[in-house]
Amino acid sequence: MNIQENYNRIKSQLPSDVQLVAVSKTHPVSAIQEVYDLGQKVFGENKVQEVTEKYPLLPKDIQWHLIGHLQTNKVKYIAGFIDTIQSVDSEKLIREIDKEARKNNRTINILLQVKIAEEESKSGLEISEARDLFEQYLNGEYQNINITGLMGMATFTEDQDQIKKEFLVLKKLFDEFNQLKKLETLSMGMSDDFPIAIACGANSIRVGSAIFGRRDYSR
Ligand SMILES: *Cc1c(COP(=O)(O)O)cnc(C)c1O
Fold first, then answer.
1. Entry's Pfam families (predicted)?
2. Could you read off the pLDDT of 72-102 as tens digits, one per residue?
């Protein structure tokens, strides 16, 4: 399978209201350009250094999403151009993003990453922490960020019921928040579990290997 076939196959499976974030981490600029040329505008990267290297080499109308854990001291490197930070997992990080966005005279979209996996290794806010941060946001504490939704990752398992159960926890929280303020994005689902995620209400999915092929983890 080549990239073009992979991309077209995935696109053809998606309902028109589901956003595809093409996760290009570890893949070269040439591969990203190839997918861009097929019409894709939204790309996800998980490392600050990698996205800051790729950004100047690619078309300026790409919307870059950061999807990996972000250290506070690195926010400044991406604040000038990042469209959305999907992996916001602490109050300290929100404050820093808000501050750096203000310095750059812009608003940065963020998703609150919520820990839904029972697996210990996955990061994210506890549900109660997400509620607290959302409340602060509704009270006007963060003027240069826009909380556009929630992001979550399910446990890495073959057990479809387990995955579904975890996704539905996030869908429920999304509905709760959505009552308080209209949210755009429920980001859940990756190459192996995006059909389940969509069935559970995801309207944005993050797909890497199913488009670009396997990653070389030695990098
Ligand atoms: C790498 C990554 C993805 C994409 O994973 P694939 O299995 O390659 O589709 C999605 N979300 C996050 C947070 C990732 O780090």
1. Ala_racemase_N
2. 999 999 999 999 999 999 999 999 999 999 9
The β-bridge partners of 215 are: none
User: Where residue 219 falls among pLDDT bands split at 50, 70, 90?
Assistant: very low
pTM (predicted TM-score):
0.96
pLDDT tens profile 195-216? 999 999 999 999 999 999 987 6
- Long-range own/partner contacts, residues 76-80 (CB < 8 A, 24 or more apart): 76/100, 76/103, 77/48, 77/49, 77/52, 78/48, 78/51, 78/52, 79/103, 79/104, 79/106, 79/108, 80/104, 80/106
Which pair of structure tokens corresponds to residue 202?
Answer: 């995801």
Is the CB of 130 within 6 Å of ligand 1? no
Which atom of ligand 1 is least distant from the CA of 25?
Answer: 1
> Is the distance from the beta carbon of residue 113 to the nearest atom of ligand 1 less than 6 Å?
no
Q: What spacing in Å lies between the alpha carbon of 143 and ligand 1's midpoint?
A: 30
Which amino acid is located at 192 in the chain? D
Q: 32: which 2 tokens?
A: 């990203």
Ligand 1 in reach of 213 Cβ (< 6 A): no
Does ligand 1 come within 6 angstroms of the Cβ of 68? yes
Query: In whole angstroms, how far apart are CA 215 and each of 24, 165, 218?
Result: 9, 28, 9
Domain ranges of the chain: 3-9+18-209
Q: Nearest residue CA, atom 12 of ligand 1?
A: 67
